[in-house]
């Protein structure tokens, strides 16, 4: 039986033509009154805005999820605690948006971005910075069944990310100790770490710790921002080992990543 290798990450360098300002109204009634341009930038461009309260004091997180694939309440509580520990955003609102399935066998980042354009309702407004997270019912189109590689999540804009929830659940059933909420938490925290600018993706590194073999990922063992976690000796192995030693199953950020966030205005 082939041993699967699980990846936390996919940083999408998604360039969408004409996305500098979304002014088209699909209803045909003139320009869209919502200026979406600040939410259509490159990954990491809003790192300082998320970390500090200088421009935005509130964080609004819109969870767009396919019916039946809503993240667990436990994972969302863990995720909110992670945000409050690493940023100065204490006013964090999470709202849920149930969506129909796109009925695809797999999804490309372009398809996910198109779904966001069709469904997202929360954008930056006043002192509120909006984030959109899509929980998909299909795997990434980059998964390779023959190689046994799968992707748990991806970031593709400064305030946009996806969690491949069906893949997350498939992974969690391989362990008697690790729960779906554990894997959801790890995927959420890791991908949001990229939105916070890690590693050298909007939060410049104070000291060198970027993996030379995996751009924008940490080279320190045990860090949440490691690029590749191999099944058995990787993600589940790490979580099981942490549980056995009395630690929380989800790895945290190492001191170098925390130092980078602090240097960019975070906690």
Would you summarize the structure shown here?
Helices cover 27% and strands 16% of the residues. By secondary structure, the protein is α/β, with parallel strands linked by helices.
Task: Offer a few descriptive terms.
globular; 7 helices; five-stranded mixed beta sheet; alpha/beta; 267 residues
Write up what this structure looks like.
- By secondary structure, this protein is α/β, with parallel strands linked by helices.
- Helices cover 27% and strands 16% of the residues.
- It is built from 7 helices and 8 strands, in the order E-H-E-H-E-H-E-E-E-E-H-H-E-H-H.
- It has helices at 47-51, 73-86, 109-119, 165-172, 180-195, 235-244, 255-263; strands at 5-7, 58-66, 91-99, 128-135, 149-151, 153-157, 160-163, 228-230.
- A 5-stranded mixed sheet has the order 3-2-4-7-6, sandwiched between helices. Strands 5-1-8 form a 3-stranded mixed sheet.
- A hairpin with a 2-residue loop joins strand 6 and strand 7 (160-163).
- Helix 2 (73-86) packs parallel to helix 5 and helix 4 (165-172) packs across helix 5 (180-195).
- The longest helix is centred in the C-terminal third of the chain and has 16 residues, at 180-195.
- Residues 13-27 have low confidence and may be disordered.
Q: How many H/I helical runs? A: 7
Helix and strand element order: EHEHEHEEEEHHEHH
Q: How many β strands by DSSP? A: 8
Arrangement of strands in the largest sheet: 3-2-4-7-6
Q: Which regions have little confidence, pLDDT < 50, spanning 5+ residues?
A: 13-27
Summing up helix and strand content along with how strands pair, one would put the structural category as alpha/beta
The major β-sheet equals:
5 strands, mixed
Q: Proportion of β residues?
A: 15-25%
Described by the principal axes of the CA atoms, the overall outline is globular
| Radius of gyration (Å) | 18 Å
Intertermini distance:
45 Å
Mean pLDDT: 87
Helix content: 25-40%
